[in-house]
Write a structure and sequence with these properties.
alpha/beta; Aldehyde Dehydrogenase, Chain A, domain 2; six-stranded mixed sheet; 15 helices; about 40% helix; globular
Length: about 500
């Protein structure tokens, strides 16, 4: 029987009283390997209460001690790298290299959190007025909650959100993905092995109905959300209406522009890695390629050739390059999008709908798929599919290509492939995307910079990672002081605007 998972409150793993459990599958075999509880309203409230009770003690812990615990946490993840890699690969479907990258990216942000004695520093200015000094501090706010998707079960909660949040002195309630909870649960077990106080992180799995409690709960000071833009707008409006800080990372439909002067083979190989890595289940993939007509035929032929070379198989087979999707439902959704693209008139150059992997016939596989001559009115080229499907849009020149890209309501990332410094510079200036790649297929910055999507890909003021993350999880307090000195000499006291003077 599949094992029933527990939820975590105050450092304790508890059996839920719910009658509803949600299946967790091995994406390669289709087998149900665990069941996640749909935690009750009372259980979600208990998680928030535990985080609120833990906050004063944790916020009062010296920042250097919090930093040392983060160093211990980093070391713990490195020690368990291969165990966590296999968990990600099994429950999600990423191949082993991609799953390992999920853990490595988490560690990268934890390293930034280790520097909290520096990044959390405020500012000061002496003698702002005669005898007056002002100091600005950064302080934690309290309980934050994170609502996360299935596609990065390590990096999004334990990279983007939790490290900076808790390092700055806050506590955290994680609503883990019910589709991929095993990784988050194991990482939280390792977290508490490092000696963190109970309640600093609490974890639940539940339905959208119970998760909505976090948006209104009076003890929750802020919400960090990653998921669809439609749900994200609801999260933002509801949580903001209840006085909370909110950051919403939404959907994406990233475009890459290939100019006639590009190194076409390099560009094609880069696009294939970006499009089909993680089976397309990442918001920084390049699912739309805009290519100049002058080289479109040659470039598309390369795409088809290299896509056919991707080895499809069981996610945790070391030879696999393209693994399965996360669930049967998601596989069906991707297939329906391919069907729609054909119905809308796109040319289906490579069809992955009927992919079957011998020995893993019940796995959730969709092979590499390429749709050519996708036009602006086709929904398949405008909405997020989140699978191994590439749409090719053909244009006459740079300006038309840029216009096609900027017409998208989403603006997470964009890329250009060119050997022209002029076009690269113009693209960087004029692209609407928050993260731009020049001959780079996945323009995600390292953690000292923010993950900065724009338009419908992000709602809020401060992004995850970098100093944006530190600012999101802290509030500023400015303290202005004035001191009156006293000096005793010959029975007389003399004071003067903060300066000690002695009289004889």
């Amino acid at each position: 029987m599949a094992r029933r998972l527990k939820y975590c409150v105050n450092g304790e793993w508890r059996e839920s009283i719910t009658a509803t459990y949600m299946p967790v599958t091995d994406s390669s075999t289709g087998e149900v390997i665990a069941e996640a509880p749909c935690c009750t309203v009372e259980e979600v409230n208990a998680a928030v209460d535990a985080a609120a009770e833990a906050f004063p003690g944790w916020a009062g812990t010296p920042v250097t001690k919090r930093s040392r615990l983060m160093f211990d946490f980093r070391a713990k993840l490195e020690q368990h790298m291969e165990e966590l890699t296999l968990l990600v690969s099994t429950e999600l479907g990423k191949n082993l290299d991609e799953a390992r990258g999920d853990i490595i990216k988490s560690i990268e942000v934890i390293e930034l959190a280790c520097a909290v004695p520096v990044t959390m520093q405020g500012d000061s200015l002496m003698n702002v007025s005669q005898g007056f000094d002002t100091v600005m501090y950064r302080e934690p706010l309290g309980v934050f909650a994170g609502i996360v998707p299935f596609n990065f079960p390590a990096m999004i909660p334990f990279g983007w959100m939790i490290p900076i949040c808790i390092a700055t002195g806050n506590t955290f309630v994680l609503k883990a993905s019910s589709q991929t909870p095993l990784t988050a649960i194991r990482i939280l077990e390792l977290f508490y092995e490092c000696g963190f106080p109970p309640g600093v992180i609490d974890l639940v799995t539940c339905s959208r109905r119970e998760a909505s409690l976090l948006l209104e709960h009076p003890k929750v000071r802020g919400i960090s959300y990653v998921g669809s833009s439609t749900v994200g707008r609801h999260v933002y409006v509801t949580a903001a209406a209840h006085g909370k800080r909110v950051q919403v990372q939404g959907a994406a439909k990233n475009h890459g522009l290939v100019l006639r002067d590009a190194n076409l083979e390099m560009a094609a190989r880069t696009v294939i890695n970006s499009c089909f890595g993680c089976a397309g289940m990442r918001c920084m993939a390049l699912p739309v390629i805009v290519v100049e007509n002058a080289v479109a035929g040659e470039f598309v032929a390369m795409l088809v050739k290299f896509a056919k070379q991707r080895r499809i198989g069981c996610a945790y087979d070391p030879q696999t390059e393209l693994g399965p999707l996360v669930s049967a439902e998601h596989r069906q959704s991707v297939i329906e999008w391919i069907n729609r693209g054909v119905e809308e008139g796109a040319d289906l150059l490579l069809d992955g709908r009927d992919t079957v992997v011998p020995g893993f016939e019940k796995g959730f596989f969709v092979g590499a798929t390429i749709l050519d001559r996708v036009t602006p009115e086709m929904s398949v080229g405008n909405e997020e599919i989140f699978g191994p499907v590439v749409c090719v849009k053909r244009v006459e020149d740079f300006d038309e290509g840029l216009a096609v890209m900027n017409a998208s309501p989403y603006a997470n990332g964009s890329c250009i492939f060119t050997e022209s410094g002029m076009y690269a510079r113009e693209f960087a200036k004029r692209s609407h995307a928050g993260m731009v790649g020049i001959n780079v297929g996945i323009p995600v910055p390292i953690s000292v910079f923010p993950f900065s999507g724009h338009k419908d890909s992000f709602t809020g003021d401060l992004h995850v990672m970098g100093m944006d993350g530190v600012r999101f999880y802290t509030e500023v307090k400015s303290v202005t002081s004035r001191w009156f000195g006293t000096a005793k000499a010959e029975g007389k006291l003399s004071t003067w605007e903060g300066t000690i003077t002695r009289t004889k």
